[in-house]
Structures are given as structure tokens and as C-alpha cells.
Amino acid sequence: MLDTTKQAVRRIALVGAPNCGKTALFNALTGSRQKVGNYAGVTVERKKGVALTPGGRSLEIVDLPGTYSLRARSPDEEITRDVVLDRRPADTPDLLLAVADATNLRSAFRLVCELVQTGKPLVLVLNMIDIARHRGIEIETDALSRQLGIPVVAACAVRRAQMADLWQLLDQLSETHTFAKRENNWSEPSATQLRNLQREADRLIAQAVRYPEKPDNLTTRIDSVLLHPVAGLLVLLTVLFLMFQAVFDWAQPPMDLITSGFDTIGTLIQHLLGPGLVESFLVDGAIAGVGSVVSFLPQILIMFLFILLLEDLGYMARAAFLMDRIMGGVGLHGRAFIPLLSSFACAIPGIMAARVIDNRRDRMTTILVAPLMTCSARIPIYTLIIAAFIPAHRVAGFLSLQGLVMFGLYAVGIVSALGVSLVAKLIFWRNQPAPPFMLELPDYKLPRLKNVLIALMTRVKMFLHRAGTTIFTMTVVIWFLATFPMAPANATQPAIFYSFAAMIGHLIEPLLAPIGFTWQMSVALVPGMAAREVVVAALGTVYSIQGGADAALQVGHVLASQWTLPTALSFLAWYIFAPQCTSTLAVIKREAGGARWMWLSFGYMLALAYVASFIVYHIALAV
Ligand SMILES: Nc1nc2c(ncn2[C@@H]2O[C@H](COP(=O)(O)OP(=O)(O)OP(=O)(O)O)[C@@H](O)[C@H]2O)c(=O)[nH]1
Ligand SMILES: [Mg+2]
């Protein structure tokens, strides 16, 4: 007779290999909207949520980073190991829900065999059963359940109807349930033990799973083109290029709509209030500042739409594979690709995604260069300047010149990241050979509209939240500085010349004059440290106060009349490198484990920005 223990399950942890659908399952169970994506390493943090079973009980669900073994090698895997082995008292699970990708059972079962050793109450979910069935893979869940001595259910995280069995099981478990009591025999497996575990997993597969005679090789056929060293790179470049064209070509109508919306509100307020301090605060400050940033939302969304579609399709891991050779040459780990790619959205998730890199040297290099990737906060700055100074010509009949310049700015960011990695490799870690790169390529999947829309909505919310908080606050500060003290009665200059902003600007200007920055730009740079797009808001506010209300929201036109081309180019160069916002610096400090790294990255980026602007400015002047 087995020794048993009676207990009601209250907290369940989701454990499984990367990309097996844990987060999709977590979202399905808890109604959350955590990020899922068709590549390994999406989740690097543990996330909690509450699931309400059909029987009306509530269960706490913990989503964890994916791992192939409890033999944790990287910081994200350590989180999973620690939760599974009860090393995090606040997260101790009553039950482990082992999640397996039913189309990829070898590595899944090896982990399950390891989880069995921990002696913890365990349930196996065969996720992605829809795809497995479609491919003709037959899995005998009863046989598996008998072999492993644990409940086994099939599920599809993205189809409600195919979640019923799992819900029913969860309901049962949430009642007082009898579990076989088992010892914790887990110890960190050696290479030999891992091989034994794999043999055990293969034996399970042989007994309970039948594969079709003719396997589906669509993925292999597509990959023969997309992973080709030449054709693959060409496809990658084309895709990226199309993305930048789209950013410029598709965004204009919605942008105009947003701008005219803000314009109308501004005019309305002017009519209602008449000129005065309150009117100036609302129109020149809040609306000019926040409106000038919000109008760039369409561009940011188009960019994300592309990235999300590619992520869901399963293309990102391929791109990483293609770039591995180039990245390896400059001392970047192949696994750095996804963190760097995430940094196109924002350096913060990018730096966090570097947790998937097990080797400290490679992780630090990735963290150092991640902020050089063009984050979405730079999109408003780039597009503002490009639209104002670069003519909307077509090159070779169909390429937009503006899109080309944008592509170029991104390319410079990427190339300098490669350059900095090379320097870091030479200076800091001269002799260590690069470890081999192993990355599982996910199967291609049709992007799920729902995933994409949810992720886009999350972006919209984050952006509007920033606009309403950081950007708005900074706009108020700038408006205050640019309005007070007010001009004397016998003033000869526009009022702003007598303000604090002008004083601060003139104080900083001598430092920035060699790179062609005006005093207005100098003031705008300071709040830009809070978040980069604040610079656009600050310029909007400064110039609208200076130029009268009609200048509000027409920042681009104002800049075109006030700046020279060399100044504009120098400003662009500055923002390729300009030190990251304060939140990024804080994340670097936390993830790298020390303020030293934060100051290092702040310092080197500031130096690069200054040098790059100086060179660009003087070359442009000479030409
Ligand atoms: N067709 C189908 N797709 C699924 C299913 N579950 C997840 N997916 C998709 O599989 C991909 C990976 O899902 P995630 O939930 O991000 O995987 P994860 O296990 O959390 O991955 P990591 O966080 O990287 O460890 C996503 O594109 C999901 O939409 C399923 O049951 N059926
Ligand atoms: Mg996940």
C-alpha cells in the first residue's frame, strides 16, 4: 500500500521546456494577458494569477520561465528551479503542472522524469494537442499516466473547448485530494544522469506515442530557404526594410487625424478661455507637449505589428540563427539576438531578456549594448526630424527616402552595438572562447490575431500611460520653466527669453554649441533623460511658447525654419547614442548587479553621442 498524503491544492506552478505554451496556458487559466511568443525565452520572470475553476474554487497559478532541466544554468532557469524545489517560501507550489509540447515530447519527457524525482505532486499536461493531432501524432494518455504514476491530460491552451479536461482535473485537485507520498530524490544531474533520463523519456515515448509514417516537413522546406546563408539574409533584410517603409507610408493618415484632433481641442480651449496663463498652460503646455508625442503612436504600432507577426510566425529564432555568425564574430552570444531584438521595443524588456544567457560575460556584453538598439521612444524623435528635414522623395521610383534614412538610423544603432561588443570583448574578456550556441527552432505557426491584438493593445496602453504620466509631468515642468519668470513690461524679446528655461539653456549651451545645438535644444535634453520622447514634447512646448499658439503641434515646421540641416543631423546622431532614460539605467543596475555597470553604460553612451554629433555636425557644415 502506497504511503499517501491528503491535501487541497492551492498554488500550482507551470513548469516546462521553453516555448511549450506555459504562458498561453497561464493566460487561458487566469484570464491574464501575459506576453506569449513563438520563440524560446519569452518569459524570464515568475508571474502569478488566480484561476477560478468551474466548481467555483480559486487557485493561484504561477507561470515560470521555460527550462530543459532543473540543472539551472541561467538566471531565468534559476527562478524556475528555486520555485520547483521550494527555495522561495512565498511561492512554494502545492502541485507542479508539467507542461509538454505534444509535438516535441523528447525534451518534455526528460524534464518530466526529472520532476518526478522531486517527489512533488505532479500532473502532466500535453499542450498543443491540436497541432499534434493535426500531424497525426497519437498519444495514449492512459498508458502514460500509468507509467508515470501521475494524472495526464491533453489540452490546447488557445482553444477554450479543448481546455475542459484540464479544468475538470483542476476542480478535482482543488478539493482535498490524495497524493502518493514520495521522497525528494532530486540532485543536480550529471551529464550521464541526463542521458539516462533521456533514455527513460525515449522509452516512455516508444510505449505511449505513435508518430505518422510520413512526417510533416513543411517547416523543413521553408527553412531550406529562410536559413540559407545568402537567401535567408536577403529575406531578413527585405522584411526589415519593408517594415521601415510601412512605418512612413502607412502612418501618415492616422497621424494627421490625431494631430488635427489635438489641434481642434487646442483651438476650442483658446476660444473658451481667451489668452491667459491657464490657456497657455493647457494649449502650449499640456496639448502641445503630450499631443506632439501621442501623434507618433501609429508609427510605433506599425513597427510592433511587424515584430509581433514575425514573433508569432516563429521567424525570430530563425533570424537569431542567421545572425549568429555575424554576432559571434564580434563576441556576442547567439542567444543575445532575442534580447537585442526586444530592445527595439524598449531596452528594459531587452535587458531582462538577457537572463536567458547563462554565461556572465555574454550577458554583460548584451546588457551593455542593448540600449544602442533603437527603442520605440526614439521613433517620435527620428520621425519628427526626418519629416522636417528629409524631403519625401522616392528613390528609384518606389523607395521612400525618409524610410531609407530611418532604416539607416536603425542600421547605425545595430552596427555600433556590434562595434561596442567587439571593443568589450577585446578589453574585458580577452581570452575566453565563446561557448557554442544552441537554440531550438520552433515550428512555424500562423500568427494568432488575438495574440497580436492583445499585444498591440498592451503597447497602446503602456504608451498612453507614459504620455499621461512621465511625459505629461515633464511637459508641465518645461512649461513652467519656459513661462516664468514672465517678461518685463518693456520686453523687446519673446517672453521665453526671460524665463528659467532660457537661463538653463544658455548655461548648458556652451557645452553643446560645438555639436550645433541651440539653447532650446539644450533645455529639452534635460527632461529627455526621464524618457526620450519627452524631448519632442519639450521642443513642442518651448517653441510653441516662443512662437505663438499656431506653432503648437507643428513642431516639425517650426524646427525646419529654426534649425539648420547640420544641427538637425547632429541631433539625430545624438539620439542614436544618447544615454538611456533613467528607468533603463535602473534596470541595468539591477540586472547587472551593480552601479558600476550602470555608470559604465551611461558614460560610454554619452561619450559616443557627443563624438558622433560632433563629427556629423562638422562634416555636414563642411559639405
Ligand atoms: N496551436 C497552438 N498554439 C499554442 C498552444 N499553446 C501555445 N501556443 C503558441 O505557442 C507559442 C508559445 O507559447 P508561450 O505560451 O509563449 O510559450 P512558453 O512556454 O510560455 O514559452 P517561454 O516563456 O519562452 O518558456 C505561442 O505562439 C502560442 O500562441 C496550443 O495549445 N495550440
Ligand atoms: Mg512564457
TrEMBL record:
The keyword Transmembrane is annotated on this UniProt entry: yes
One Pfam family per UniProt: FeoB_N
GO molecular function (one): ferrous iron transmembrane transporter activity
Residue span(s) of domain FeoB-type G: 9-176
Gene Ontology cellular-component annotations: plasma membrane
CDD domains listed in its UniProt record: FeoB
Domain of life: Bacteria
SUPFAM superfamilies attached to this UniProt entry: P-loop containing nucleoside triphosphate hydrolases (SSF52540)
Keywords on record: Membrane, Transmembrane, Transmembrane helix
Chain segments annotated as transmembrane: 225-248, 268-288, 337-357, 369-392, 404-428, 463-484, 496-517, 529-546, 558-577, 597-620
Cross-referenced PANTHER family: FE(2+) TRANSPORTER FEOB, FERROUS IRON TRANSPORT PROTEIN B
Protein name, as recorded: Ferrous iron transport protein B
